[in-house]
# Entry
Amino acid sequence: MLKQVLVFGGGSGLSNLISGLRLFPFNLKAVVCVSDNGGSTGLIRNKMEIPAFGDLRKVFSAFNEQLSPILEKRYSHPLFKNHPLGNLIMLSLYEKNNNSFEKTISEYAKLVQVRDQVYVPTFSSVNLKALYKNNCIYGEEEIHNTLGEIIGLENYPQSDVNEQVLKLIQNSDIIIFSPGSLYTSTLASVAYPQIIKALGTTKASIVYITNLFTELYETNRFSLNKHIEAFLKMKIQLDYVIVNDEKIPISYLKSKMLESVACDKIEIPGIKYIYGNYLNLDTNNIKHDFQKIGEEILKILAEN
# Structure
C-alpha cells in the first residue's frame, strides 16, 4: 500500500513542490491556503465575498501539467484584467453552484481530472490576520508587505474547518510544510485552532522544507532557526527540517536583490536537521531541487 503524504502551503512554493513530488511512489495530497487577497484573486474578492481561488488553481495545475498551460493562461485584454483562465472557470462554477465553494472545488477537480488530491482548510471566505507587538494587520497582501515581527496569526472570521482535512492529518504517514512565504502562505494554511490541535495529536512525521531566501518584509534577516521558531510559537512541533546548505552564488543574490537563509550554529533540540545540496541551478531563477527532496521524503518514510 502506498504511503500517505499530506502537504500544507500556498503560492508558488506549494505548486512547485507538487510538480516535483507528484510522480513519486506515494499517495500525495495537498491542503491549500485560501486567504490570498492579491493579484487576480484580490481583484475578484474585492468585488465579491468569495474564498480565494488563485493558490488552489495553481495546485490543480501542478497535478495536471498537460492542462496547466491552458489553466494558467492570462489574458492581457483589459476586459479580462489579466485573470488566468482557471480563475474564471472557478468563478463560473462558484456562481453556477449558488456560491458553494465545496461543490465548486469538486466540479473543478473533475474538469481537470485531479480527484481526491486537493483540499482546502475551510470552505468559508476568510482573510488573514497577523498580530504584531503594537498592532494588528489584516489581509495577506498587507501582511506580506509589512515590516515587523509577527507574534500571532489567524484566519478570520472564525469558521468551520474542512473535516476531511482533519481526517487526512490523522491518517497520513508524513505531513510536509512547503517552502514559500512563511506566514502568508505556509503557516496561513494551518492557522485554524482545530487544525493546530489535530497536528498535535497525529502520529505522522512532520517535515518542513526550509526556504532558500528570506523576504524583504515578512522574514527580513530571519535565520533558519527563526523560521522554525515560527512553527513552535504556533504549537506545531516539527520532527524534521530539510535544509539546503549549498551556497547560492553571490552574483545571483546581488542580481535579484535577495538574501539567503543563514544556518545557525546550534540546532533546536528535538528536531532532526537534514542537510544537503537541494539547489536547482538549471533555470534563471534558482529553486529547490524537488527530485532530491522527494528522495529525502522516501528515506523519512522508510525510517518511520
Notes: The mean pLDDT is 91. The domain at 4-36+119-303 is CATH 3.40.50.10680 (Rossmann fold). The first strand starts at residue 4 and ends at 9.
